[in-house]
Amino acid sequence: MKKFLSLCAGIGLLASGVTAQDAAPGSIEELMNDLASTNPLVHAIFADHIDEAKEVNAKFQAGHEEAASKAAYDMFRKYSQAAFLAASDGSAIEVLKKAGDVIDALGDHYPRGCMEFVSNDISSEALSIASVNEAYRKYQEAERVAYEDAKLRADSEDGDRRNV
């Protein structure tokens, strides 16, 4: 499982080394528990599209790590980009502010991490710096909030259309 999460680091999946004791090794529950603690946005996307997440996990369990990584990245791009386009200005601005905070922390403590961050491949070395890790976690949470905001806005618009 950790090898799979490492392969997905390009989309921000960083293995924490912590798995829930009640989740069977290699199960979708283990994957979701890992994601919940390492990447709230990807966790939300996988939770909303659990059938696709199960397919990604099955590819990994079958030994097709590259295919699993590609499928996970494709899911991330497909759902996160659409959501961010629909997010409110406030949510989108908050993501950008938090990204700026990450860049500031990296610039102060690990300058080469700035390039890692903008290419969506932040290293565990960069995240080992407390201030960088804290800023990055806040950034990830802002991304998740924007994703959830976009879903709520879409549901609201659908409801408005039904009431017309």
Which percent range fits the helix content? over 70%
In terms of DSSP E residues, the strand content is under 5%
Q: How many helices in DSSP terms?
A: 9
Radius of gyration: 17 Å
- Classification by helices and strands: mainly alpha
Cα-to-Cα separation, first versus last residue: 48 Å
Provide tags for this entry.
164 residues; mainly alpha; 76% helix; disordered N terminus
Report on this model:
It is a single chain. By secondary structure, this protein is an all-alpha fold. Helices cover 76% and strands 0% of the residues. The chain has helices at residues 2-7, 28-38, 40-48, 50-61, 65-86, 89-109, 112-118, 124-127, 130-162. Helix 3 (40-48) crosses helix 4 (50-61). The longest helix has 33 residues, at 130-162. The model is unreliable at 1-20 (pLDDT under 50).
In short:
This protein has nine helices and no strands. With 164 residues, the chain is mainly alpha-helical. The protein is globular.
